[in-house]
Design a protein that fits this description.
Elements (H helix, E strand, L loop, with lengths): L1 E6 H7 L2 E6 L4 H10 L4 E4 L3 H10 L3 E7 L2 E2 L9 H4 L8 E5 L3 H7 L3 E7 L4 H11 L3 E6 L9 H14 L7 H5 L20 H7 L7 E7 L5 E7 L1
Parallel strand pairs: 1-8, 2-7, 2-8, 3-6, 4-6
Antiparallel strand pairs: 3-10, 4-5, 7-9, 9-10
Helix pairs in contact: 1-5, 6-7
């Protein structure tokens, strides 16, 4: 099995084989929490106006997402797992758009299979990959705003690669230490309203969920994320 690590939207476009689009802080951690909270459907889109159009199309739907880390005006929730775990999403359609993660899903057009990746379901991602046994795995670290390398996404890619190949490496201290590097913004009091400290801990809670989220291209160019229990 060949494993390649790529970055950003450009990397998503180049990715082939079974592709994992990684966004730890916070899109694909949020997506897992939303599905766990009872959402029956999750639609990812790269465009804010398209998100509003989708809400008009689907009854009992909510908008989740951010631009510049902050909740988009008119959205129900920001890109925050702290908000999501307190929300009643049972039976709802979640429509999500973010700066990096959802754009990666939209642009992974050369991949044979696309799934999301984060620490919260890393074990399930690896079990799925080892079950499928693809010839090629592309791990795409989406980065901060899809333009700056993000330590958490690259660390998640490194973790997944090690687990897939059976390497026994303890990553927990490096994950915890992210609070002093790329995760330190969650501990800045100025960011409390949209990036609280609890977001950091919820996003770095390894293997909280035993499912993956598989991307399926929709007729309208957006992405349905489907839960597969592993």
């Amino acid at each position: 099995m060949k494993i390649e690590i790529l970055e950003f939207v450009e990397g998503a476009g180049k990715a082939t084989g079974l592709t994992v689009i990684i966004d730890v802080f916070r899109a694909f951690s949020v997506a897992c929490y939303a599905i766990d909270a009872g959402a029956t459907r999750l639609i990812a889109t790269g465009d804010v106006n398209e998100a509003f159009a989708l809400r008009n199309r689907y009854k009992n739907s909510v908008l989740v997402g951010e631009r510049n880390e902050r909740r988009i005006e008119g959205f129900d929730y920001g890109n925050s797992p702290t908000e999501i775990i307190k929300a009643n999403l049972a039976g709802k359609t979640v429509i999500q758009t973010t700066t990096a993660g959802t754009s990666g899903l939209i642009n992974a057009s050369n991949a044979s299979t696309v799934i999301t990746g984060s620490f919260v379901n890393a074990g399930a991602v690896v079990r799925y990959i080892n079950k499928i046994k693809p010839v090629k795995v592309s791990l795409v670290a989406m980065g901060y705003r899809s333009s700056v390398s993000a330590e958490e996404d690259l660390l998640c890619a490194e973790l997944l690669s090690a687990m897939i190949t059976g390497k026994k490496i303890n990553f927990q201290k490096r994950i915890s230490d992210l609070r002093f590097t790329s995760g330190k913004r969650f501990f800045n009091p100025e960011n409390l309203d949209y990036s609280p400290p609890t977001d950091f801990f919820l996003c770095t809670m390894s293997d909280r969920f035993n499912f993956i989220l598989k991307a399926n291209q929709r007729f309208d160019g957006n992405i349905d994320l489907s839960r597969i229990d592993i």
